[in-house]
Amino acid sequence: MTEYRAPLDDMRFVLNELAGLDAVAQLPGFEEVSPDLVDAILEQAGKLGAEVLAPLNRSGDIEGCRLENGVVRTPKGFPEAYAQFIEGGWNGVPFDPDYGGQGLPWLVTTAIYEIWHAANMAFALCPTLTQAAVELLSVHGSDDLKAVFMEKLVSGVWAGTMNLTEPQAGSDLSQIRTQAVREGERYLITGQKIFITHGEHDFTENIVHMVLARTPGGADGIKGLSLFVVPKFLVKDDGALGPRNDLRCLSLEHKMGINASPTCVMSFGEGGIDGGGAEAYLVGEENRGIEYMFTMMNNARLAIGLEGVGIAERAYQHARDYAAERKQGQAPGDDGGDQSVAIDRHPDVRRMLLSMRAQTEATRALAYYVAAALDTAKRHQDEGIRKESQALVDLLVPVVKAWSTDTGIEVANTGIQVLGGAGYIEESGAPQFLRDVRVAAIYEGTNGIQAMDLIGRKVAREDGVTAKALIADMRALDGPLVDAQGEDQGKDTGDDLNAIRESLTEGIDALAEATDWVVATHPENPEAVAAGAVPYLRLLGVVAGGWLMAKAALAAGRLSAAGGNDGVNKEFLAKKTVSARFYADHVLVQAPALSRTVTRGWSAVGRFG
Is 444 a residue of the active site? Predict the structure, then answer.
């Protein structure tokens, strides 16, 4: 399998030119975050990803996990890699230094986690969920809970999980039956949970489960759910581990991909360890579990979008390197006799590779852009700006999760096509990327659910306020695109910018038209709007990605004209412009058709049967 190399040049470019690392570094608490510091962090993360995590990706997929007498054994090398991971302090990058974290921006954390997911997605799922558990406790946990759990979770010495669904519930959490009965200062939980990622493993000495359950007398449906902390091992007053709690892994799921990540069926209070149930500690107040859990879920959804970005990058590198070495046939126009050429000389292979590269770059840009907005929402001194930034994050998190993972699936699938027959053979490594990333469109709310959330709660119920503000920001790029064409950057650059501007203008118009239709139609015909939810989400992702790719082309032109300053070389900058032009001609042009699907799609869907 091709070795993985973190795309540090593009990461730096996106951080500095598109996501606004300089502005994030001016937020309170981030004054020490300099480009040099970020470069050093990314270099070290890239080294760990390439040298430690990536070599385990294939072997972990083949070996998988196994359950032995209630103990989950992860593949060879994984526990040792995790020990190295936490020894380097990587688990605590974005968290409060008071609990042992490093206090770095989510923007930087986002770039780092792209590396983990690209190098070894199955491994990265464990710290991803721990990260979400820390974020949940930091916002909603009591001082007592924080005192017991935060430091160990931030360090990664203990791991965290999310326990939501059950066999009868699926995505409908209102059907949850797990019970929590109060007994003094604690609760006793009984029930089963399914699809619990890293619910049991051999990475850490303790696993801290975040569990949704019902208390007696609570309301029906999701309003009656409460959230609890349920540790695998109880914790003594002095912080040492006590006896085993009444919970266990009943079985492991046999999955399509991420075979090195144990997906568990968890049983709480059914083992008879102390005869009453698993000891649990309430987070916040009873009957507010869904509200609290969304803090964890939204964090996880942004991270899952990064899985799409990371796997897309890994699949692209794999296909690109294969195509540069594999010789077959002659490209049109070649005059080389009978001598075969590398397949990356063939126009259709070049099209596929550019499609993979451009779409990966667009999803990376949007994920980092949202991460920067998240930092602003958390730390900006102006309350109004914090609220606007949070609204933008709320709008775009479903897009990052769904569009990026759909794109990751498409890119991984294209990678198989580039390899041809070899790509269909497991030994090539290409199928694993598609098998691994496929689940990302399903868990933490399927992509269809993300689309429903976006179009219903984030656009229609808000009368499109945040979406229209984003559209206005996109339109503001028109002037710089026109001005840049008037500068002396050469005919090719001028042609590229003109084509990009034309496609972007059409895309923004299409998005605006669809948004207006959603806002106008939803009050009287929410079914029609719901039928267009998925194409609307894709439309927003495609156009937002096109907007950021246009900004990338402008920045590349500016840096190139300045002589490739800031350590960015001209070859890289030229490739950025080519990616942006390809995206405009091959992807962004889909926007008008997607808009028509949004506004007209209900006609046939409404008559299905």
Answer: yes
